[in-house]
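Exam revision sheet. Question 4 asks you to relate a sequence to its structure. Input first:
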Amino acid sequence: MEQRSGRTQLRRSSAFRLLTGAYLFFRMAASPKLPFGAVWGANLDSDGKFTLRLSPIVRLMMTLDDEMSLDQERLVFNEDRREKFQKMHLEALGKRDQLFKGVAILDAAILLLLYGRAIEVPGLGINLIDVPAGLEIATTLASLAFMFASLAFFNEQAYLAIVNKFGEKFARPAGVDPDFVNASEGYFEFFLKLYGSQMNIWRPDVFVPGRGYRWFFGSLLVALQLSLMALLVLHLMAIGAACASLWQSPSAYYISQAVAALAVVSNAVGLLVVFTMNVSFSFTVNPIGPSPR
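Answer key, structure tokens:
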């Protein structure tokens, strides 16, 4: 069961996960027999410890599963705790969406400042090119918004992993697909599940799709991913054009150049946060584990 849980994290991703590009595209070739982002190591120490390669999200899910195993009477990880995590996930979801909307608006402002300089600002009687430090301000805000949006996205995915783990625990005794449990209590991207080649995550499907279904909806998902990925590329191109313009602009105390450097660093941090979400790192596993106090 645990081997499936990591792989299903990909299918539960939101549309913004497609937008940022990191989480749906790189690891599609993960082994079907191992957790998504986890690969067993071959070295086993004499004391029983061994190494395991895990992504940060899978590490969180497996750690939570270990913590849940200590709470046999469900004094901590109960229905009340589950509802609190669901509430926090909705808050994280709203924060993430607001930040990504801000990135889109600021990207539009950058493009207008770069290529619409002759446009007159209504009510001010000046052209966009004459707006004091307009490009510097828009570039700084867009870069910082992208960085914080990436962090908010990572945080939202962590809450989503916790909520999904609760759903698995509650659905496992009945042997039902936990996606249907989670979808009844929070926002769920059903099109990712409907378009997939397999519907049930724990057992063989009752209705196995044919080649036509797999090819059609597989192609549709690829086209959707590419179109949304283009938004990320557009953001990076807008930031790149702005940085090039700022780097060549004469400014007092090299303010424009400092803004360009800040934009490069902020966007690089945002990309690294998202792109390393499903990258596996080595961990030493202690088979004894913690003991309850």
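Marking note for examiners. DSSP finds ten helices and five strands in the chain.
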